[in-house]
Amino acid sequence: MSKIRIAIAGVGNCASSLVQGIYYYSNVQPQDSAIGLMHPRIGPYQVSDIECVAAFDIDSRKVGRPLNDALVAPPNNTKIFHPLPAGIGPVVQMSPILDGISDHMDHYPEEVRFIPANAPPIDVAEHLSQTRTDILVNYMPVGAQKATEYFAQACLDAKVAFVNCVPCFIVSDQIWAERFREKGLPCVGDDIKAQLGATITHRVLARLFASRGVRINNTYQLNMGGNTDFLNMLNRSRLTSKKKSKTEAVQSQLDLPLDDQNIHIGPSDFVPFLKDNKICFLRIEGTGFGGVPLHLELRLSVEDSPNSAGVVVDAVRCCKLALDAKLGGPLDAVCAWTMKHPPHQMNDSEAMTVVEQFIARTEQLIARQSLKAC
Questions:
Q1: Which sign does the torsion angle of CA 31, 35, 39, 44 carry?
Q2: How confident is the model over 36-60, as pLDDT tens digits?
Q3: φ, ψ for residue 75 (rounded to 5)?
Q4: How many other CB atoms are found less than 10 A from the CB of residue 48?
Q5: Assigned superfamily of 198-303
Q6: pLDDT tens digits along 162-218
Q7: Among candidates 71, 73, 101, which has minimal Cα distance to 88?
Q8: Element (DSSP H or E) covering residue 199
């Protein structure tokens, strides 16, 4: 069976956790092979079948270095749960910067911010073709719409599938979605929904309130952390799509959406010593039986990037299954299961059902196509 050949755009904490996970599940004992995974196997593919063949970044401490070395270079600060063998992996290539760096980062220490490399950008589409990449995983910073669009176009030009892990809307945009559909290329997006993070927790609790007849009156979700994502988001002008993605993800679970003044979801602050640990403070105020009020308060602490990688491995393998079946355009079921801002929102139990159906149907389609080819 062939490997799933991926390229990574943005060699940050999330990329580090993804690559660590590939090593981890390649070496784990059989009795532990399902720990931490929603799907140990998708079609014929396990996590260990993912292979990174190309990587792109703009930071001087990463560009020109083997991927494994770049993944542990500053400003990356996520937990190392599986050591990365030094000197291994594709050399990180310089990509166009475009809107990938916010100016306010210049005022922070070098160890926590991006430092642009003094190197000319390569032609990303050409490099994707040369490396025979199947799928590009986009990890651009929040607010980097132009950079995300550049990588999406490179995928179209190189005939590469696209998994968009950030809240820059491509897959949920009708024009971009149609372009991938016309090219016969599957795409999954937008904005990864962590394995057990703030958004999925908020969604499930909101649905619980509704299913138990409790009216939600007000709710907030405040998040803080110490990685470059939170530093980048101190520039509030870059947050429009992020707030929209997270807010719609929760609103979609309510029978009657809340007025804007009654819901607040967004980052709160950058706290350097937290590193890649993310702290979420969540409050829901509701009205129950007899008009009696009730309040729920929750504090959630998670390592942000492994929480993302646990879902990205599903998105990537589903995308490869769609490639094998020659399916193009947004994979609606997969998007609803893995992303905060899919083309079509579902509640999470429904999304789980439809993604299982998608996997089964696509496997059957591949089998039929193989029989016809014989």
A1: negative
A2: 999 999 999 999 999 999 999 999 9
A3: -90, 15
A4: 17
A5: Dihydrodipicolinate Reductase; domain 2 (3.30.360.10)
A6: 999 999 999 999 999 999 999 999 999 999 999 999 999 999 999 999 999 999 999
A7: 71
A8: helix 198-211
Contact (CB, 8 A) for 170 and 150: no
How would DSSP label each residue in 109-142?
-GGGS--B-SSPPP-HHHHHHHTT-SEEEE-PPT
Comparing C-alpha atoms, which of 372, 262, 317 is closest to residue 135? 317
Task: Compute the Cα dihedral for 350, 352, 356, 358 and give only its sign.
Answer: positive
The stretch 136-144 carries a mean pLDDT of: 97
CA dist list (Å): 141 to 15, 23, 107, 297 = 12, 25, 18, 30
**Burial degree of 169 (CB within 10 A; 0-12, 13-18, 19+):** buried
Domain ranges of the chain: 4-193+306-370, 198-303
4-193+306-370 folds as Rossmann fold (3.40.50)
Number of Cβ within 10 Å of residue 192's Cβ equals 29
DSSP E strands in 142-246: the ranges are 161-164, 186-188, 215-225
Whole-angstrom Cα distance, residue 25 to residue 326?
A: 28
Strand order of the β-sheet with 4-9 is 92-94, 50-57, 4-9, 135-138, 161-164, 186-188, 329-330
Each residue's pLDDT tens digit, 221-262: 999 999 999 999 999 899 889 999 999 999 999 988 999 999
DSSP code for 161 = E
Please return the burial class of 19, using the count of CB atoms within 10 Å of its CB with bins 0-12, 13-18 and 19+: buried
Q: CATH topology of 4-193+306-370 equal to that of 198-303?
A: no
> What predicted TM-score, i.e. pTM, was given to this entire model?
0.96
